[in-house]
Design brief:
Blueprint lengths: L2 E6 L5 H12 L18 H11 L3 E5 L4 H12 L3 H18 L4 E6 L10 H6 L5 E5 L1 E4 L2 E4 L6 H10 L3 E4 L18 H24 L2 H4 L5 E3 L6 H21 L24 E4 L5 H11 L4 E2 L9 H12 L4 H16 L2
Parallel strand pairs: 1-2, 2-3, 3-4, 4-7, 7-8, 8-9, 9-10
Antiparallel strand pairs: 5-6
Helix pairs in contact: 1-3, 3-4
Length: about 350
């Protein structure tokens, strides 16, 4: 058994409409057209063929950074309200997962831009989905809102009550490039963000969820971050060092920061929240995966391919060859055991 917990599918005709919209408007906010025109985005048969060739028994459908723009394009093209577009997307994804006889598994996309109007989708999709997909940040009301924003608190409460994991994809809205000082060379500004900025956004998202107290208020929450959570596993020791230093400094000043009953003075150690956070293996080497497993726990890592955005030759074939370099028990945990427990398969 092999379970892919980071795969993208956009039910027809959403992706086709999106490609037409990109051509019509010239917009490439989320990268060039070739990232989004693989037939496997809308073709479940082609996807299942690729899965079979790589020995993948189940693929969990999650959503990429451009899903909000895909929905907006669908609304513009077909005259839909945004909430209608979300329901239609989820219904079509659930239907194709049913037709796959369990090979494809659905998450429900929850468009947090809708505010309270987004929440009924959690209950409406019910047991047809294995979890919920969101992105790490949203442009709302003229500002960038991260997932720890108080406006999203009702979502976290509903997700915890539903008892299903939340899959978080970077948003591509967190920028590290300086338009006034572009890098020379072919696509180097894009390369810098895709190769580094996305990892920074993942790590920032995790850190803000922890430090803002989301997991204290909702201890039953489980979230899944792609790309091994970016720098998340590798910054935990430094965060603990800072926690120790700041706690000692507060104690000398007569301030108690270790009592969660006093939230305005409570200092959080990120290492205390690793049970709430899962990461996937997408684009990580065997050495990086083994290191992350040692830090966050071997039971908190899932296999992820990012197919079809990442070509199967890299996201599936190369990635699986990397996994096979791991010790047998760690391989089995990442390949299927952790996902079976988390998704209740």
């Amino acid at each position: 058994m092999l379970i892919d917990c980071h795969a993208h599918h956009v039910a027809a005709p959403f992706n086709t409409d999106y490609l037409s919209w990109m051509k019509r408007t010239g917009r490439q906010d989320f990268g060039p057209v070739y990232l989004w025109n693989d037939p496997a985005f809308e073709n479940p048969s082609l996807r299942c063929e690729k899965m079979a060739a790589c020995g993948i028994s189940h693929s969990l459908i999650t959503y990429s950074a451009n899903i909000t723009q895909i929905l907006d394009a669908a609304c513009e093209t077909n005259g839909l309200a945004r909430s209608q577009a979300v329901r239609l997307l989820n219904d079509r994804t659930i239907a194709l997962c049913r037709e796959s006889q369990g090979r494809l598994l659905a998450t429900a996309f929850i468009d947090l831009r809708l505010g309270d109007e987004a929440l009924p989708e959690i209950g409406r999709c019910g047991d047809e989905v294995k979890g919920y997909s969101v992105i790490a940040a949203y442009h709302m009301d003229g500002q960038l809102r991260f997932l720890d924003s108080p406006v999203f608190e009702p979502f976290w409460a509903e997700a915890e009550q539903a008892g299903k994991p939340v899959f978080i994809h970077f948003s591509n809205l967190y920028k590290i490039n300086d338009p006034a000082a572009p890098l020379p060379g072919f696509m180097n500004d894009n390369l810098l963000y895709a190769g580094m900025g996305q990892l920074m956004e993942d790590a920032l998202c995790v850190a803000r969820l922890v430090l803002s107290g989301v997991f204290d208020r909702h201890p039953g929450l489980k979230v899944v971050m792609g790309q091994a959570g970016g720098m998340y596993p590798f910054m935990l020791e430094r965060m603990e060092m800072l926690y120790t230093m700041y706690s000692a400094g507060a104690a000398k000043a007569g301030r108690h920061v270790t009592d969660p009953a006093v939230p305005e003075h409570f200092l959080r150690n990120m290492k205390h929240y690793t049970d709430n956070i899962y990461v996937d293996t997408h684009s990580m080497s065997a050495e990086a995966i083994a290191c992350a497993a040692k830090i966050v726990g071997s039971d908190r890592i899932l296999f992820g391919s990012d197919y079809p955005i990442t070509p199967d030759s890299w996201g599936m074939e190369h990635a699986l060859n990397q996994l096979k370099e791991l010790p047998g028990e760690l391989y089995e945990q990442i390949a299927f055991k952790n996902a079976r427990a988390l998704l209740r398969i």
